[in-house]
Design brief:
The complex is a heterohexamer of chains A (about 220), B (about 200), C (about 550), D (about 230), E (about 190) and F (about 350). Chain B has about 200 residues and is mainly alpha-helical. Chain B is built from five helices and four strands. Among the domains of chain B are: about 70 residues, Electron transport complex subunit B, putative Fe-S cluster (3-methyladenine DNA Glycosylase II, Chain A, domain 3), CATH 1.10.15; about 60 residues, Alpha-Beta Plaits (2-Layer Sandwich). Chain B is elongated and about 90 Å long. Chain C has 14 helices and 17 strands. In chain C, a hairpin with a 7-residue loop joins β7 and β8. The longest helix of chain C has about 55 residues. Chain F is mostly helical and about 350 residues long. In chain F, about 65% of the residues lie in helices and about 0% in strands. Chain F is built from 18 helices and no strands. Classes of the chains: A alpha+beta (about 220), B mainly alpha (about 200), C alpha/beta (about 550), D mainly alpha (about 230), E mainly alpha (about 190), F mainly alpha (about 350). Chains C and F meet through β15, β16, α8, α11 and α12 of C and α1 of F. The structure holds flavin mononucleotide (3 copies), riboflavin (RBF), iron/sulfur cluster (4 copies) and FE2/S2 (inorganic) cluster.
Chain lengths: ~220, ~200, ~550, ~230, ~190, ~350
């Protein structure tokens, strides 16, 4: 009795699982290429916001490595670095670094750096700063973030890489100094990291980005 | 594709086995809920709820076949208790069942009674005394006021009379709500429904 | 010096005791009619032993105690019983109850002495209790519980007998006057009670705003050399409450739902002690008591009043105006009950009549016309001597959540009114508690009824089922008997038929089936009905058509 | 039957609305009602799943046994959800990212299992489909209403980011009410979601009560008029 | 150790599963009318949530990931949850009638509590390890229980308040939840990350 | 003649809700005067706006709910809520901030729950938190005390700022705004400065807390003492709030005086005193049992410290109060006092 009952239960549930699973798996196979493409397009859009697509000719999305430097890149997890090349020669990199000391929490940045060490562009990928105060680092709300374009480690000099209130050249927002301060510091750190590891960054062999690892990072918005 | 099928199928079969096992191994019979519901009902046994007595109604509620607002003798108090027990929202009494009335008892005009025993057969709680061709009497303390004996009487000798108040049964009235809290228009009233 | 323990909470009230203590106590005028409710105490009503038209003598028994918790009633004066019928009684409902009404003849003729004076110190406890019980003494301090019952410790040791002379309510001064005028007699009564209880110690608690009473009693104790402590307690309302007084004098708490005797304590009012003295030493039953008349009267004072005197008479005697009455309170301003009419009589437990009339300046600072919402300030909780949370109880009483309110121990509330007094929102809190309590009692009664009904219904179902089965069985037997056919079966069939007839006959003869398990009360109802039936069958059926519906037992 | 389906629709859209009356499916309702577009996206996804699962459950309703009922229903729903999830990922990826975890959570959207249990498992396919659709549309409507409320108060816009759902060409849909509106953050933050839904429910109560009153008045008039009628006759 | 403590603080206060993350709202609104039932629900959910967080982790780690079947997460997790709930219910029903009285009617509701599936999915998304997953699940459950119990006690009071008619019932409850969530915003930034 | 038959007791102490409220308002006045002395007319103007808005909102809601105006407008609770909220708003905040905050406080925080006596949350704090999370910019734009900046803006100028955002001649918005001491402390600690450096380098900090603020705090303390003396408020809540804040801040201060400011700074900084005596004690939304009140106060003290020290908001009084408001019914339920005659230890 018990055995019979159990087997029937098992069969029913197993049957449903099997049918359902089959259908889903089928749909998965149908949609998989589209999904891959959508993910790629999404990341590319961010990348192209910081690196002019006209400058490179490689598949920047797949030319990716991960690096690890909690001190300078602000994250104790490996950080993706995308590399742009033209005719095989390094043009720029885009580093997904983190400003760990935002007002509310860490701020995820995408820092694009030309091969010569000047900033190609900076974007905020995700943050939790106070809406209305700290969120002016988003490009959508304020063009403050564009102020990094063209800067480099020497422009301004070391002392200048601060918000104005601390004696640097970058604006702060009224009523919110901490957020810009954190971003400026993180961008500066990222530049320093690039300076130190420039050669290796381009030399290292690319890993094909595991599809879900980067979709995860963007999902957290 | 295949691995997906295998994995899900395996999970399904595993869980099916588990639940099938548990269903037999941990089988429970009986439903204590009915007892609890029955304990709340007033036991008037009047059938106004549409069921032949309080217990059948309790069973219907437990089976989720009947709503909780069908017992007029119990009135608001019973509805609220049932709602509490079953985790539902209280609602007003279903007016197709009847309305809440003050408690009554039956009274037989003994001089009219012809001793037909029809009322005895109707009374759900054996609150009527008497035998064929003899005068019948209500045992007042037993009568639930269900009115079931009224209709069968061929000579209309049974009346429902209000339960008499005495110093012992007198209740302190609720203090009247302050005038500013008088309900302004229809709708559920959170206040005690005034003095009794 | 006796060690005092403070109880928590309580309020300090403005005293109004000067006026009524200025004049000495004198007997009130004899009223033309005396109204004596059969129930003036906690317990069952007394049963009349006189009939309308009977002449009675002062002190004569007119109603006897029916069961253990009951007190007999005596005629307060000589006269004629003119009615035994419903009359308004001093009760919050304003309802009527059965009273014996005596028209006085002004002769004040005593009944003959029933007991010759013996040496009272030799009376045994049982005898003492008998005398006290027969004298109809109930507690004169409040609840009116038959004193003899309270004086029976039932084998439990009694450590302390407390005499309650606190009299903590404003306006009331009857106990104070009694102590001032009859300290010796009160002491004697106390010693008799002690004798009945075999109590180890005796303590009398008197609030420190009654120095004269305190001195009078202390002197009486000193003169008699009795081993009784007379203690002054602080004037905080409600020290007079039994539980609070016990806590203050002994530091012990009466367990919730228990009685003082559970912790070896018995507490009685001073008036009760005086009544005991009069009953035992003078052979006088409880027919009069001290009553304070205060408020909007020309001469506030204490009178010795016969039980049964209508309140209106007292008001007139003290110079009050019966026509401009606005509020008439029996008892003190904190615990007393407002009456619906001034025709209600003084009963054994009436200690004070507080008059408020529209013509005199209104002496009582009462609540606003309506309450504000509770702001949860907690003043009430700080004032509550029982440490309840009045604001929560109020909240749930309002919401009719009677389960929750019991979680908050509403039945420990002594209805002292402290919470109400200090509430800034002026909410009639005690009114809500009384409402909740009586609703709960009522619900419990209904529950009992429902349980009974369920039981009877189930029994009926069972009975019907049984009958059906029996019938089916008989039916089957009959059929099988018939179908068997043949000669020899005929005999059996006839026998079966005869058996059926016999069964049917016996069924008719025996009592109806639905009366198997009856309580005595029900049996009585049945017997009554049977009797009526009998009577009916003798007279013609159409004669007594106007029979009134029976009262509910 | 016509009357019956009308009733089913009325139940779903108004009288027994999942969000306003049954208070089910609150999580996605509150979480993704920041803007109308998000709301619409999730609403459509939910409706699809609801209709699909109702139909399927109704089809197989006689096959399952008690202890397997919930697991089976849940399994069916989960399959539909995963399918929808995959499709969204493939074709409206940006929206998918914003709705985030709430797409897979459609599975546990209490509405769906509640309908499966209380309706689809007792009714035929047609009625179940209708029920699924009307419940889903009712849910979507509330979702969109709440989204609109929050978006207007919070951002001063309507249909912002319409391009996420309808493609780049749809940007013109976005309406900006006040230029330079600073925004009333409360509406966008979590508290705003709760309070907004509370206000919507209160609004429904008010409307219902009005309707009730009118109905009562109408009934009274109806009962009162017959005696008046003879009088009007010559 | 501090790591786990931070996860706890974060899930209970800062990212409260109900008031901030918007998960588990239906039971939050549905079974908060009375303090006692809320307590029962809290206990049942805590048990199931923690258990299913762990099991989901195991299924994901040892079945789905090795086979590259991440897209079946939702399906398999919900199956796990449904089975855990069903199994628990049957066992409790049989073995402890007392406990079943308290928890019985809530258990089936838990399957459709988004918080349970949500936690399983979030665990994967945030790449939690075994212990982290368990702590995260437990913390989320504690957060749920905390606000549910507080909310129930508040609702008991609100139901007897003189609330305007249109707002009686769910409307005022939601507004209360809104104000609670407003208060919880005070914890923002307590745990960065 | 029909006799009146109300239930007992038949006498009353004469205490009244409105008299309680009036006394609380009276106790606030010295502090308001002191505040005006240090920070200018802003508070007075804000208070006026707030009180008017409060009365208008209250009247509107009473009308909508069909309740009589007189007993409720006159009870003083709306005025008190408005004053307390005004005290928490930056003195130069634009007028609509005050209006919005007070209206939200009274409509959502109070009347949706049934008005006086029924609101589970402290209305003033509901309004304040709503403003803080919705308009962080306006709500963090405080001003330095006059004596520091040698500036004095008169009544008319203040009106101009509040109603028209019209800055007085020669003043920039930056000159008029500064962080509160708590805010400055938090910002600077975030820059890894030590407490003693911060205190030494910023004139914002006075003898033991913020310049000016410490005097306002002292007057509030005196007012609170008066209320305790008059038994308008219970001693448990203020003592528990201040006591627990003192203990926990002393603990960390003793551990590391460089990163954790002194207890005195915490107690006189921000709105601690105001909260302890006037806000946490709001009878309606606080716990009502004696033990519950102590736990409630301790909870507030601890939450204030935790959020100030590790959270994002520089001051946390409002959040702490709302959070503990939330817990109050539960606390009440589990801290019922031992009733006379019940066994000890078993409540
Ligand atoms: C509610 C609130 C939210 C805040 N949000 C932020 C923020 O998002 N980013 C930030 O840098 N500072 C934020 N602050 C911090 C203060 O504004 C802080 O004083 C400021 O960053 C210090 O810089 P200031 O000197 O320019 O005012 C916030 C403060 C409060 C009270
Ligand atoms: C219902 C009831 C039952 C009582 N039963 C007893 C009893 O059995 N024995 C006894 O000594 N006292 C009994 N008492 C008397 C109490 O002990 C107490 O003295 C009396 O209630 C007077 O108290 P009070 O006026 O403070 O209310 C009873 C009182 C009440 C109200
Ligand atoms: C609040 C309150 C106040 C009381 N005040 C007095 C009082 O002042 N004097 C008194 O004798 N009894 C007072 N009682 C009644 C006593 O509790 C108790 O019933 C009485 O002393 C018992 O004595 P007895 O049985 O002789 O009446 C008060 C009761 C309550 C509840
Ligand atoms: C001691 C005391 C403190 C009060 N504190 C506040 C307060 O912090 N916030 C507020 O809005 N109302 C306060 N009130 C006023 C009143 O209680 C409040 O408006 C009620 O919450 C309204 O129901 C206070 C009243 C008193 C007596
Ligand atoms: S209506 Fe009520 S009392 Fe009557 S039979 Fe039904 S449940 Fe019993
Ligand atoms: S006597 Fe009549 S009314 Fe009373 S219980 Fe029996 S049938 Fe019902
Ligand atoms: S004293 Fe009155 S207002 Fe204060 S808590 Fe008690 S009942 Fe409420
Ligand atoms: S009446 Fe009851 S609740 Fe009020 S103070 Fe007295 S004992 Fe306490
Ligand atoms: S939708 Fe989340 S619990 Fe119902």
């Amino acid at each position: 009795m018990l055995r019979q009952y159990m087997t029937r239960s098992a069969l029913i549930l197993g049957l449903f699982a099997l049918t359902g699973g089959g259908l889903v798996a089928y749909i998965y196979q149908l949609t998989e290429p589209h999904i891959k493409e959508a993910e790629r397009a999404y990341t590319l859009r961010s990348l192209h916001a910081v690196i002019n697509p006209a400058l490179h000719d490689n598949d920047i999305f797949h030319d990716m490595i991960t690096v690890h430097d909690p001190r300078l890149l602000g994250s104790d997890k490996p950080v993706p670095v995308f590399r742009a090349r033209r005719d095989g020669k390094p043009v720029a990199v885009a580093i997904m670094s983190v400003a760990p000391d935002g007002y509310v929490g860490p701020i995820k940045l995408l820092v694009g750096i030309h091969a010569d060490g000047t900033l190609a562009g900076v974007r905020v990928l995700s943050h939790k700063e106070t809406p209305g105060l700290g969120d002016r680092i988003e490009e959508r709300r304020n063009n403050w973030i564009l102020g990094f374009n063209g800067r480099s480690l020497n422009n301004p000099q070391h002392k200048g890489w601060r918000v104005q209130r601390d004696g640097g050249i970058f604006d702060q927002f009224t009523g919110a100094t901490i957020t810009p301060r954190a971003v400026v510091k993180a961008v500066h750190n990222t530049l320093t990291y690039y300076q130190r590891h420039k050669e290796r960054l381009f030399a290292q062999k690319s890993v094909v980005p595991p599809a879900d690892s980067d979709d995860k990072s963007s999902k957290e918005r | 594709m295949l691995s997906a099928l295998l994995a899900l199928g395996a999970l399904g079969i595993l869980f099916g086995l588990l639940l099938g096992y548990a269903a037999i191994r941990y089988k429970v019979e009986g439903d204590p809920l009915v007892e609890k519901i029955d304990a709340i009902l007033p036991q008037t046994q009047c059938g106004q709820c549409g069921y032949p007595g309080c217990r059948p109604y309790a069973e219907a509620i437990a089976r989720d076949e009947a709503d909780i607002n069908r017992c007029p003798p119990g009135g608001e108090t019973v509805i609220v208790s049932l709602a509490d027990l079953l985790g539902r929202d209280p609602k007003p009494l279903d007016d197709e069942c009847g309305e809440e009335k003050p408690k009554m008892v039956a009274y037989i005009h003994e001089e009219i009674c012809i001793g037909c025993t029809l009322c005895i057969q109707a009374c759900p709680v054996d609150a009527i005394l008497g035998a064929a061709k003899q005068m019948h009497t209500i045992i007042e303390s037993e009568c639930t006021g269900c009115e079931l004996c009224v209709a069968p009487c061929p000579v209309d000798c049974i009346d429902m009379v209000p339960v008499k108040q005495s110093l012992d049964t007198w209740k302190w009235p609720a203090p009247p709500p302050p005038p500013y809290e008088q309900p302004t228009d229809s709708g559920p009233d959170p206040q005690p429904a005034g003095a009794h | 010096m006796h060690r005092l323990f403070q109880f928590r909470g309580g309020v300090v009230l403005k005293e109004h005791k000067k006026d009524a203590t200025a004049l000495p106590v004198q007997p009130a005028k004899l009223p033309a009619t005396l109204i004596l409710p059969l129930k003036q105490h906690i317990g069952s009503p007394a049963e009349p032993v006189v009939a309308v038209g009977d002449k009675v003598l002062k002190g004569q028994l007119i109603a006897r105690a029916g069961d253990a918790i009951c007190a007999p009633l005596h005629a307060p004066s000589s006269g004629t019983v003119t009615a035994i019928s419903d009359h308004p009684v001093p009760h919050a409902s304003g309802m009527s109850a059965v009273c014996i009404i005596i028209e006085t003849d002004g002769e004040e003729r005593w009944r003959p002495r029933e007991r010759t004076l013996s040496d009272v110190t030799e009376l045994g406890a049982q005898e003492l209790r008998g005398i006290i019980r027969d004298a109809g003494i109930v507690g004169l301090g409040g609840a009116g519980f038959p004193a003899a019952v309270k004086l029976d410790p039932g084998g439990r040791p009694v450590d302390t007998l407390i005499l309650n002379g606190a009299e903590c309510e404003p306006y009331i001064t009857c106990d104070e006057m009694l102590l001032r005028e009859h300290a010796r007699e009160v002491l004697a009564g106390l010693l008799l009670m002690r004798q009945a209880l075999a109590a180890k110690r005796c303590v009398v608690g008197i609030e420190n705003n009654k120095p004269k009473a305190f001195r009078a009693l202390s002197e009486a104790v000193r003169n008699s050399g009795a081993d009784v402590e007379v203690v002054e307690v602080p004037t905080i309302y409600p020290t007079g409450s039994e539980k609070q007084l016990i806590q203050m004098l002994t530091g012990k708490e009466v367990p919730s739902g228990g009685l003082p005797i559970d912790i070896g304590i018995v507490c009685h009012n001073v008036g009760t002690a005086y009544a005991v003295y009069r009953a035992v030493e003078l052979d006088q039953p409880l027919i009069s008591r001290y009553v304070t008349i205060a408020g909007s009267v020309a001469h506030a004072r204490n009178l010795e009043v016969l039980i049964g005197t209508p309140l209106g008479n007292l008001i007139e005697e003290c110079g009050g105006n019966r026509d401009s009455l606005h509020r008439l309170i029996v008892g003190g301003p904190m615990m007393g009950t407002a009456m619906h009419s001034d025709t209600v009589p003084v009963v054994k437990g009436t200690n004070c009549v507080l008059v408020e009339s529209t013509t005199h300046d209104v002496p009582l600072p009462s609540r606003d016309a309506y309450a504000m919402p509770c702001i949860r300030c907690g003043n009430c909780a700080s004032a509550c001597p029982v440490n309840l949370l009045p604001q929560q109880m109020y909240w749930y009483a309002r919401a009719r959540d009677f389960d929750k309110i019991q979680d908050y121990n509403i039945f420990d509330c002594i209805e002292c009114g402290c919470c109400d007094y200090v509430c800034p929102s002026q909410i009639p809190l005690v009114g809500y508690y009384r409402y909740a309590k009586s609703e709960i009692w009522n619900q419990e009664a209904e529950k009992r009824q429902a349980d009974l009904a369920r039981e009877r219904h189930q029994f009926r179902e069972f009975r019907l089922e049984r009958e059906k089965k029996e019938r089916a069985e008989r039916h089957k037997k009959k059929r099988s008997a018939v179908t068997k056919g043949g000669n020899d079966d005929k005999q059996a069939a006839i026998q079966a038929a005869m058996a059926r007839v016999r069964a049917k006959k016996s069924e008719q003869d025996s009592t109806p089936k639905n009366t198997d398990n009856l309580t005595p009360a029900q049996q009585k109802a049945i017997d009554d009905a049977d009797q009526r039936r009998e009577e009916k069958t003798q007279q013609s059926p159409s004669e007594s058509k106007a029979a009134s519906p029976p009262d509910r037992p | 039957m016509a009357d019956n389906s009308k009733q089913i629709i009325n139940e779903g859209l108004w009288r027994n609305n999942t969000a306003l009356v049954q208070l089910l499916g609150l999580c996605p309702l509150l979480a993704v009602s920041g803007t109308v577009v998000n709301a619409l996206g999730l609403g459509i996804a939910t409706t699809l799943v609801l209709a699909g699962s109702n139909v399927t459950v109704s089809l197989i309703r006689n096959l399952v046994r008690p202890e397997l009922r919930i697991p089976t229903f849940v399994l069916i729903i989960a399959c539909f959800v995963t399918a929808v999830e995959l499709l969204m990922k493939a074709f409206v990826y940006d929206l998918y990212l914003i709705l985030g975890i709430f797409i897979p959570l459609i599975v546990t959207n209490c509405v769906i299992i509640a309908r499966a249990e209380s309706f689809a498992s007792k009714n035929n396919v047609g009625r179940s489909l209708l029920d699924g659709l009307s419940m889903g549309v009712g849910f979507t409507l509330v979702l969109v209403a709440l989204g609109a409320l929050r978006e207007i108060i919070g951002h001063g816009t309507l249909f912002a980011q319409a391009e996420l759902m309808f493609g780049e060409g749809a940007q013109w849909l976005t309406i900006t009410f006040i230029d330079g509106y600073q925004g009333f953050l409360l509406a966008i933050l979590p508290p705003g979601a709760f309070i907004g839904l509370g206000l919507l429910i209160a609004l429904k109560n008010v409307i219902d009560r009005r309707a009730d009153k009118r109905a009562v008045a109408a009934r009274q008039k109806a009962t009162a008029s017959p005696p008046a009628e003879p009088a009007t006759q010559p | 150790m501090t790591e786990y403590a931070l996860i706890l603080i974060s899930t209970v206060l800062v990212n409260n599963i109900v008031l901030v993350k918007f998960l588990g709202l239906c039971p939050f609104m549905g079974v908060s009318r009375k303090l006692e039932t809320a307590t029962g629900m809290a206990m049942a959910t805590t048990f199931v949530l923690t258990l299913s967080a762990v099991f989901s982790y195991l299924v994901n780690e040892f079945l789905l990931t090795p086979l590259g079947l991440e897209y079946l997460q939702t399906i398999s997790f919900i199956l796990v949850i449904a089975v855990v709930v069903q199994f628990t219910e049957m066992v409790v029903h049989k073995t402890s009638p007392v406990l079943y009285q308290v928890l019985g009617i809530f258990l089936p509701l838990i399957t459709t509590n988004c918080a349970v599936l949500g936690v399983a999915l979030l665990n994967v998304q945030q790449q939690h390890g075994f212990l982290e997953s368990a702590v995260y699940g437990f913390g989320a459950a504690m957060g749920f229980s905390l606000v549910l119990i507080l909310f129930a006690a508040m609702r008991e009071r609100i139901t007897v308040a003189d609330v305007p008619e249109a707002f009686r019932g769910p409307a005022i409850a939601l507004i209360t939840a809104g104000l609670m969530s407003m208060a919880f915003m005070g914890f923002v930034g307590l745990v960065k990350g | 003649m029909t006799l009146q038959t109300p239930p007992s007791p038949h006498i009353h102490s004469g205490l009244h809700v409105s008299s309680m409220m009036l006394q609380v308002i009276a106790a606030l006045i010295p502090a308001i005067v002191c505040y005006t002395w240090f920070f200018g007319w802003g508070l007075i103007i804000n208070s006026a706006i707030a009180v008017l808005t409060a009365l208008a909102s209250e009247a509107l809601m009473l009308k909508l709910r069909k309740r009589p105006l007189k007993p409720f407008l006159g009870d003083g609770s709306a005025v008190l809520s408005a004053l307390l909220l005004a005290l928490c708003i930056p003195p130069l905040a634009p007028w609509w901030i005050t209006v919005l905050g007070v209206a939200f406080a009274l409509i959502v925080g109070k009347h949706l729950y049934g008005g006086l006596g029924y609101n589970p949350f402290n209305p003033a704090m509901v309004g304040y938190v709503m403003l803080l999370i919705s308009f962080p910019l306006e709500m963090t734009r405080w001003m330095p005390p006059f004596i520091l900046e040698q500036l004095e803006i008169g009544f008319i100028d203040t009106l101009g700022v509040i109603f028209f955002s019209h800055l007085p001649y020669g003043l920039s918005i930056d000159a008029l705004s500064s962080a509160t001491p708590l805010d400055a402390m938090k910002t600077d600690l975030g820059l890894s400065n030590t407490v003693s450096e911060i205190l030494a380098n910023n004139a914002l900090f006075g003898d033991f807390a913020g310049t000016g603020w410490e005097w306002v705090g002292t007057w509030l303390l005196l007012g609170g003492m008066y209320l305790i003396y008059k038994r308008i408020i219970s001693w448990q809540i203020p003592l528990a709030v201040i006591g627990s804040l003192f203990v926990i801040s002393a603990f960390f201060f003793l551990m590391d005086a460089d990163t954790y400011p002194s207890p005195l700074f915490h107690i006189f900084g921000g709105a601690t005193i105001l909260a302890a005596f006037f806000i946490a004690t709001d009878p309606v939304s606080a716990s009502t049992t004696p033990r519950g009140r102590i736990l409630y106060g301790i909870g507030i003290g601890i939450i204030i410290y935790v959020i100030r020290t590790w959270g994002s908001y520089p001051d946390a009084v409002a959040f702490a109060v709302l959070l503990m408001n939330m817990a109050a019914p539960t606390l009440d339920y589990y801290t019922q006092p031992r009733v006379y005659g019940h066994a000890r230890g078993k409540d």
